């Protein structure tokens, strides 16, 4: 194998092995989700897109996967093309009108104004994004103007299981269910990427919520943070401290994720906390680009829960 061909070696470090099984049925009484719409967008007509993820032999005859440096740009274009089709089908009229007005203004003033990005969170409660890497999730989050809470399932999937390719979408969905956040009537947007180059999306509607779903996260979901408040110094205009949620902190922080996980069971009193979870710790935002890992510690006897910043 030619070790100088880095583009042929990257896949050995990116992917992990996993799988998912989904049973589709016409029985509404047994189904938990209803499939509303599927959009498949392929950019394979362009040679650079077709070959950006390509199985081929290297100079020494070893078979491998070649990843182009243009992959992220091509993926972004595929996502834009997909959402151009999907958006009008799902977005509320207010978002469509805002986008139309922005487009007209941009055209009249020769692209001197920023194009309005529709708020997809007004159409969907949950998002399952292809966990192909931190850069992929960050890109989709920016493109759809999503909050940290919306992309939490994808970040947790990447942190816990790595890049499992297309099956990562179902790990995302299982995470949301395991956290007890899925409710009847909620709509879910799945976004997946693949060679070709393709961007596919599926829209689901929850028609039957189930508590305590035993899935891939059953043995570890309790280790992941919930959206509860704690005291933080956010440098507000008035100064002082206020109670904020985990997701609000991550939104305010530039070092937005090396990701939320939990330490082993620790006596929270050793961390200097008091009065339970809220107000137990004071956390000041670190300097820009500092990597942090937010961890939750627990009193072995229950009752005390604290968030602690670990600098890594």
Automatic annotation (TrEMBL):
Q: Does the keyword Transport apply?
A: no
**What are the alphabetically sorted keywords of the record?**
Acyltransferase, Transferase
Biological process (GO) annotations?
fatty acid biosynthetic process
Q: Which family does it belong to?
A: Belongs to the thiolase-like superfamily. Chalcone/stilbene synthases family.
A molecular-function term among this protein's GO annotations: fatty acid elongase activity
InterPro entries given in the database record: 3-ktacl-CoA_syn (IPR012392), ACP_syn_III_C (IPR013747), FAE1_typ3_polyketide_synth (IPR013601), Thiolase-like (IPR016039)
Tell me which species this is from.
Answer: Aegilops tauschii (Tausch's goatgrass)
Residue ranges of coiled coil: none
Q: Name one GO cellular component term.
A: membrane
Write the protein's name.
very-long-chain 3-oxoacyl-CoA synthase
Where does the record place the Beta-ketoacyl-[acyl-carrier-protein] synthase III C-terminal domain?
A: 124-205
- Tell me which domain of life the UniProt entry assigns to the organism this sequence originates from: Eukaryota
What's the top EC group for this one?
transferase
Its Enzyme Commission number?
Answer: 2.3.1.199
Q: Where is the signal peptide?
A: none
